[in-house]
Amino acid sequence: xxxxxxxxxxxxxxxxxxxxxxxxxxxxxxxxxxxxxxxxxxxxxxxxxxxxxxxxxxxxxxxxxxxxxxxxxxxxxxxxxxxxxxxxxxxxxxxxxxxxxxxxxxxxxxxxxxxxxxxxxxxxxxxxxxxxxxxxxxxxxxxxxxxxxxxxxxxxxxxxxxxxxxxxxxxxxxxxxxxxxxxxxxxxxxxxxxxxxxxxxxxxxxxxxxxxxxxxxxxxxxxxxxxxxxxxxxxxxxxxxxxxxxxxxxxxxxxxxxxxxxxxxxxxxxxxxxxxxxxxxxxxxxxxxxxxxxxxxxxxxxxxxxxxxxxxxxxxxxxxxxxxxxxxxxxxxxxxxxxxxxxxxxxxxxxxxxxxxxxxxxxxxxxxxxxxxxxxxxxxxxxxxxxxxxxxxxxxxxxxxxxxxxxxx
Length: 409
What we know:
- The protein is α/β, with parallel strands linked by helices and 409 residues long.
- It has 2 domains: 20-294, HUPs (Rossmann fold, 3-Layer(aba) Sandwich); 298-405, Four Helix Bundle (Hemerythrin (Met), subunit A) (Up-down Bundle), CATH 1.20.120.
- It contains 13 helices and 14 strands.
- The protein has a 5-stranded parallel beta sheet, with helices on both faces. Strands 6-7-8-9 form a 4-stranded antiparallel beta sheet.
- Helix 4 (129-145) packs across helix 6 (224-235), helix 10 (327-344) packs across helix 12 and helix 11 runs antiparallel to helix 12 (369-386).
């Protein structure tokens, strides 16, 4: 599966800063020191109802992570998956009377278009669950053969008790885990499981549903968590720098994935930092596919909204915050974009050297984009109020905003 084209990232003078970021597993800020190649895995979409603003906010956060690393002259090895076979996708295709493969392809293509418009840097490896199945099957067999998985009526489950580190990503108690498991794709009440929290690794073929050859597992399809584990281990290995996604993935998805990988390899941890973006609401409720209260990037674009304004609307909120999309949020972003573009369109202006360092410092401090935006606002206000004599300043600001914030002025 191919990703989307990359926009050019301008090189900036001076030195970038190492990233301090909030790690869900430790509950605090940690400083990442990736070495010359930074490794990041971000969980991708299940391709239906793409791309809503909740998606966009999440991928914007991890785009900033890449940009901070690139500013330190590191290379970035970025991997993202597409869950292109899963119960919700199949249910949507059945509801609408369309082919599930066609639905997945259509929505994935739309997602690529939206990511391109928003200037999100693409992953080096963009892998669908279906194409990963040949690598998933041997991992499930290894877990089963090691006694870390068991069969139940043809399905194969992972035993969470096989990982001594289980629970160290989300730090939730058993009752909270059981509740979230039921809400987020698990089946804690299924009779016969060794532990209600045990997640499915391989689902035996169901009538009328797609299935693949699973060698000794029989025909079926993979569970949700093992899909990402197989892709991450194949392309990044253990101990990669950042495992990213929305805050609703901390449990069960990232918790279970970490346990799968740790049992498979005998190494700990799977990722050095588990980083989670907040949720976006509309009319007082979190945007969700089940509620249907979604605002789509493509709809905004088709209505003539500049993608740079959409991106500025996302950047105006700290990535870990839960926030609400309103007409005012978009209006403020459009006004900010107009102000910035007018400021950099002049032939000279106030010195921008300090501004570049302010943006760098803000983003290195847990991706504090709102503080970075406020710094640009101050420069733009000074430019409009009194101007300046530095002929290179508007160009420096344009390049810094592009390179570090992903906004083309």
